Amino acid sequence: MSANHGGTLFIVAAPSGAGKSTLVNALLEREPGISLSISHTTRPPRPGEQYGRHYYFVERAEFEREVAEGIFLEHAEVHGNFYGTSCKTVQELLEQGRDVLLEIDWQGAAQIRKTKPDCVSVFILPPSRTELERRLRGRGSDSEEVIERRLRNSRGEIAHAHEFDYIVVNDRFEDALDGIQAIVRAVRQRSELQCQRHEALIGELLAED
Ligand SMILES: Nc1nc2c(ncn2[C@@H]2O[C@H](COP(=O)(O)OP(=O)(O)O)[C@@H](O)[C@H]2O)c(=O)[nH]1
Ligand SMILES: Nc1ncnc2c1ncn2[C@@H]1O[C@H](COP(=O)(O)OP(=O)(O)O)[C@@H](O)[C@H]1O
Predict the structure, then answer these.
(1) In the structure, which protein residues have their CB atom closer than 6 angstroms to any atom of ligand 2?
(2) pLDDT average, residue stretch 39-43
(3) How many angstroms does the Cα of residue 89 sit away from the middle of ligand 2?
(4) Does the beta carbon of 18 lie inside 6 Å of ligand 1?
(5) Average pLDDT value for residue range 152-171
(6) Is 21 labeled as ligand-binding?
(7) Which ligand is nearest to the CA of 17?
(8) Burial class (CB in 10 A: 0-12, 13-18, 19+), 72
(9) Is residue 166 within 8 Å of 123, Cβ to Cβ?
(10) Residue ranges of domains in the chain, CATH in brackets
(11) What does the UniProt keyword field contain (predicted)?
(12) Structure-derived torsion over alpha carbons of residues 170, 109, 189, 35, reported in degrees to the nearest 10
C-alpha cells in the first residue's frame, strides 16, 4: 500500500487592507484544487458577508466555549475580535490529499508553524502606507474608528513579515496574483517530485519477473 500523501497547508497573512482577501479569492478561481478554510469569528458581519461563506459568525460566549472544547487548530485576538481555525475540517481535507489555504494573522501563523512545520506561509505587503490607507478607506466596509485601529495595528503586523516563507508585494494586482500562483505551483511541483510519491513505481521496477 502506498503511504498517505497529505495535501499542503498554505497560510496567507497581511495587514488589513493590503488586498489579501481579493488576492485569495482570485487565486482560488485560478486554482480550484485549493480549499479555503472558513474561520470562526466574533467580529460582526460586514454588509454582504454571509455566515458559512465568509466566516462562521459567533457570539463571544460561544467562541469561548469552542476554545475550551479544543476545536481550534489555532486562534487569536485580532483588532479586538476573536478568530479561530477549526481543526476538524482542515485535518480531513489534508488527509484526503487536498491543499488547504488559511487566511489568518501572524499570531495564528506562528501557532500553526509549531504543529505543522511543513506549512507554506506567504505575507502580503502593500506598496506603501499611503496606499494601504487608501485601500482600507476605499473598501468602504468599516467605520472610521475600525479603520484607524487597523492602520495603527499594521506596523506591529508588518514587523512579523520576516517570519514568513515568502513575501508578495501587492502593488499591481495581476503581478501579485501571478506571484502567489507561482509559489503554489512550485510547492505542488516539488511535492509531486518527492521520493515517497514514487514508492509504487519503485516497487514495480524492483519486482522479480
Ligand atoms: N489567527 C487567526 N486570524 C484570522 C482568522 N481569520 C481571520 N483572521 C485574521 O484576522 C484579521 C482581520 O480579519 P477581518 O476582520 O476579516 O478583516 P480584514 O483583514 O480587514 O479583511 C486578518 O488579519 C485575518 O487574516 C483565524 O481563523 N485565525
Ligand atoms: N493591487 C491592488 N490595487 C488596488 N486596489 C486593490 C489591490 N488589491 C486589492 N485592492 C482593493 O483594496 C481593498 C482592500 O482589499 P481586501 O482584499 O479587502 O484586503 P484585506 O483582505 O487584506 O483586508 C479592496 O477594495 C480591494 O478591491
Answers:
(1) 14, 16-22, 135, 138-139, 170, 173, 176
(2) 98
(3) 27
(4) no
(5) 98
(6) yes
(7) 2
(8) buried
(9) yes
(10) 9-37+99-206 (3.40.50.300)
(11) ATP-binding, Cytoplasm, Kinase, Nucleotide-binding, Transferase
(12) -90
Alpha-carbon distances, residue 36 vs 48, 67, 81, 100 (angstroms): 19, 21, 21, 6
State pTM to two decimals. 0.95
3 state DSSP class of 167? strand
111 three-state secondary structure = helix
Residues 21 and 101 sit within 8 Å (Cβ to Cβ): no
- Which grid coordinates belong to 170? 501587492
Cell numbers linked to 171: 502593488
What is d(CA 138, CA 14) in angstroms, rounded to the nearest whole number?
A: 17
Q: Provide the 8-state DSSP code for 45.
A: P
Predicted complex: ipTM over 0.90: yes
Is 14 a known ligand-binding residue? yes
Question: What pLDDT is attached to residue 6?
Answer: 85
pLDDT of 17 over the 60 cut = yes
Q: How many residues does the chain have?
A: 209
What tens digit of pLDDT does each residue of 90-146 get? 999 999 999 999 999 999 999 999 999 999 999 999 999 999 999 999 998 899 999
Atom 13 of ligand 1, residue of closest alpha carbon: 16
- Residue (of 106, 103, 54) closest to 77 by Cα position: 106
Number of Cβ atoms within 10 Å of the Cβ of 27: 20
* CA separation for the pair 201, 193 (Å, rounded): 13
Residue 166 clears pLDDT 90, i.e. is over it: yes
User: Is position 128 annotated in a ligand binding site?
Assistant: no
